[in-house]
Write a structure and sequence with these properties.
By secondary structure, this protein is mostly helical. It is built from seven helices and no strands. The C terminus is likely disordered.
Amino acid sequence: MNSTTQHTSVIPVIGRVLLAAIFIFSGIGKIMAPAATIGYIEAMGLPLASVGLVVAIAVELVGGLMLALGIKTRLVALGLALFSIVTGLVFHHAIGDQNQLIHLLKNLAMAGGLLQVVAFGAGAYSLESKAAGTAGRQPA
């Protein structure tokens, strides 16, 4: 990809939206069924399940929307990557169960994609790029 194409490509925004979708939908799911989420958190033996629910909703919804829109993209992507790794290890550590193994690998794969966003930034089509007036130059 040459320099001009790299600075105007729609691929980064498509990638950000695809990565953000799982967080946004998961956050909405938690809002729609808080008791189920609290029960799942408690089943893992974690304290303060209600606080965990609020934190998870905030991280998933706010982080997902910020990622999709390209706001503080590298920082948000790093936070979501860490969230994905931690939640994968805490909630999907029973890797003898193929379903749990797949969920863990999904979380790790999402973290890998998010780390690509950390490394390469939001791309040309993001609110941070527009605010900086840099149609494509990446703020650090």
